[in-house]
Structures are given as structure tokens and as C-alpha cells.
Protein: Fumarylacetoacetate hydrolase family protein
Organism: Paraburkholderia kururiensis
Amino acid sequence: METWMRFMSSDGGIAFGRVENGYLHEYEGIDQPVPTGAVLSLRALTPLAPCAPGKVVALWNNFHALAAKLGKAVPAHPLFLIKPAGSVIGPGDAIRRPSSYAGKIAYEGELGIVIGKRCRDASLEEAEAAIFGYTIVNDVTAAELLNENPDFPQWCRAKGFDTFCAIGPAIVSGFDWRAARVVTTLDGTERQNYPLADMVLTPAQQVSMISHDMMLEPGDVIACGTSLGVGSIRDGATVTIAIEGIGQLANTLTAAHAQQPTVVAMAGQE
């Protein structure tokens, strides 16, 4: 297995590469995994989300245990929504409560698939080859918005706010997802602990089927869906999602900040 991360340097530059023994061996990027020759100490770098996806494809009802609890049939094709690029944050970044929403905010600990090659109408074999590696995703949801309007379920709005998609801390290539579990804790109390082997559609199946619906680009992320134990986050609480072999992703929900009123000077009062 190899671990890949993305960082900001002290001068504001962004570096991506393979992490080994406290150093970043810089590469051109996910789409061009070619080493630049630069080797940087991690002590001088600030972790970012390990990729900058153009889109995050987030699945619903992709685990047998949760489908059984909800009384839902398992899908033959991925059931998904799109989270915008602006919703992505990295490890340690704050999840910000929207100023327009005072209701329940939920966490969902998930495995994330990171695309490494442009992918369209892919076979299972091509889809497997297009997977760069795996990461951790917290698919955050403004839960009470979903059915606020009885005429239109608001999946994209409820899950698309800025900071509502935490990704990190790393991408791991060569990761055996079948043997791993997702463990989610809320302020140190375990809330989720489920096996990834319970997935309805495997990562390769997800990539293949979704690629027949839309182009998948390098750096795009597919969030594989969650299982039992989804719950709400209080303002100030910290959600930590761990997958052994990838690491831990921790983010804290911060309260909304009241917007300051805009003062417009009248003529003669400047």
C-alpha cells in the first residue's frame, strides 16, 4: 500500500505526493503520477483534503444492513446525488453550520473512491484500473431540509452546503477495502462500526455503472454510502471517522456566525 496526501506549504503553494517516513515525495498530481524530485518535510506542511474533486458522487442505500433496517430493496444501480466541489474540506477543518439553517445536522462515515484516470462507459476491469485509491468521507447532511418541501426532496441542497463534505486524511492505493471497517465516533463515543464487505455494489461496480451516466475525471470522489449508526452532531461536537489502513478524519461542527449588517452611507454622510 502507498499513502498519498496533499498539503499547503508556508508560502501558500500546494504539494501532492507520496508520504513516507515523515516526508512528502512530491508528484505532479493524481492525473500525472510522475515524481518532481522534490522531497519535503511534513513538519513544514499543513494537511489539506487529499484531492480536489470536480464533483463528489455520493451513494444512498448501498449497504445491506441499513437497507434491511429501512425496509428498502437493495438497488441494482447506484442511487446517488452530487455534492459540489465547494463543499469539500480537509482533516481538521471546521464543518460550518449554514446561517440559513438551525435544524439537525447529521454525519455519515463512508469509504471514498478516488478516481485516477478519465473514465467513461468503463467495463469492470477498466473501472478497477481507473481507481487511484481510497480515502475517508464524512457526508454531512442538513437532515431536516430533505423533506422540507413535500413536492421536491432537496438532496443536493441538504448535502451541498459549503464544508459539508470532509475528505481525508490520505488516499491509500492498494487498499483492501473488503477486510476493513468504518468506525465513527462522536466526541469519543462510538456511533458507527460496520464492515465494508457489506456493500451492495463494489467499488469497481460503482465506478463502472456511474461512468455510463457521466464522465468521471481524475480527482473525482465517489462516496460509497453509509450503514447503521447515522446520527446528529451538536454545535461544538467533533466527528472522527477511522478506517484502519487509511487513518482518521476528524472535524468539528461550528455554530453559524451572524452576518454583520451592511451599512450604506447616504450622500453627504461619508
